[in-house]
């Protein structure tokens, strides 16, 4: 969903280049070790962070990890940044750029987890290549994930979920966890579920939340 432009958010982003990378040149590798207080910590990435409730909560809960929020909209990046500054999240960086360049923004084998939360379903067939679980994106995720890394995916859209399961299966991925009703099934996941803004909205309406963890490592 496109957010309405907020001048204060745009201004805030422009005032904090140490926290927000804006449209970095994909041809130039980003020196992430200079952007984190402790770059030796494990790195995790959320693609399409929206207003950032998920990634900022996760960063606050886990100061022993580093996080990058990839978000294309400047207003959304500003909302994330405001929370980052309020909570003093030195382990969180914001990248305002296109996720299609993720393998250019990050070195091979550099991240442990990629989070895909309530991504745009792009329901029309002609837009299949824009879906964040399309095979071209999966190939890029595989490049930047460590050998033991994985993808964590959540959506309320049954069509996108079915498509993603098929796409990942065709790519040869292993499903470590699958749920078709995350909030009501008795399931075990590796960490406490953090709800996004969209997740709270959809769950309140009674919509089932679909989730999966998938890895590229052969089992």
TrEMBL record:
SUPFAM superfamilies: S-adenosyl-L-methionine-dependent methyltransferases (SSF53335). It is an enzyme of class 2 (transferase). GO terms for molecular function: tRNA (guanine(46)-N7)-methyltransferase activity. PROSITE patterns: SAM_MT_TRMB (PS51625). InterPro entries: SAM-dependent_MTases_sf (IPR029063), tRNA_(Gua-N-7)_MeTrfase_Trmb (IPR003358), tRNA_methyltr_TrmB_bact (IPR055361). Pfam families: Methyltransf_4. One of its GO terms (cellular component) is tRNA methyltransferase complex. It comes from the Bacteria. Pathway: tRNA modification; N(7)-methylguanine-tRNA biosynthesis. Keywords: Methyltransferase, S-adenosyl-L-methionine, Transferase, tRNA processing. S-adenosyl-L-methionine binds at residues 46, 71, 98, 120. It catalyses: guanosine(46) in tRNA + S-adenosyl-L-methionine = N(7)-methylguanosine(46) in tRNA + S-adenosyl-L-homocysteine. Its EC number is 2.1.1.33. Residues 126-131 are annotated as: Interaction with RNA. Substrate binds at residues 124, 156, 196-199. The keyword Transmembrane does not apply. Gene3D superfamilies: Vaccinia Virus protein VP39 (3.40.50.150). Catalyzes the formation of N(7)-methylguanine at position 46 (m7G46) in tRNA. Belongs to the class I-like SAM-binding methyltransferase superfamily. TrmB family. This is tRNA (guanine-N(7)-)-methyltransferase.
């Amino acid at each position: 969903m496109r957010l309405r432009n907020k001048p204060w958010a745009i201004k805030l982003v422009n005032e904090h280049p140490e926290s927000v990378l804006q449209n970095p040149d994909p041809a130039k590798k980003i020196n992430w070790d200079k952007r984190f207080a402790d770059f030796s910590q494990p790195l995790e990435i959320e693609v399409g962070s929206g207003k950032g409730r998920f990634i900022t909560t996760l960063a606050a809960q886990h100061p022993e990890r580093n996080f990058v929020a990839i978000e294309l909209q400047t207003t959304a990046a500003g909302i994330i940044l405001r929370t980052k500054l309020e909570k003093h999240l030195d382990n969180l960086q914001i990248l305002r750029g296109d996720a299609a360049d993720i393998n250019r923004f990050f070195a091979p084998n550099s991240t442990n987890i990629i989070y895909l939360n309530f991504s745009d379903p792009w329901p029309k067939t002609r837009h299949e290549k824009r879906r964040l679980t399309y095979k071209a994106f999966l190939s890029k995720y595989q490049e930047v994930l460590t050998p033991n890394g994985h993808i964590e995916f959540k959506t309320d859209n049954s069509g996108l979920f079915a498509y993603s399961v098929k796409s990942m299966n065709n790519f040869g991925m292993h499903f470590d966890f699958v749920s078709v009703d995350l909030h009501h099934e008795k399931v075990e996941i590796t960490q406490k579920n953090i709800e996004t803004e969209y997740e709270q909205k959809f769950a309140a309406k009674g919509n089932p939340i679909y989730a999966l963890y998938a890895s590229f490592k052969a089992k």
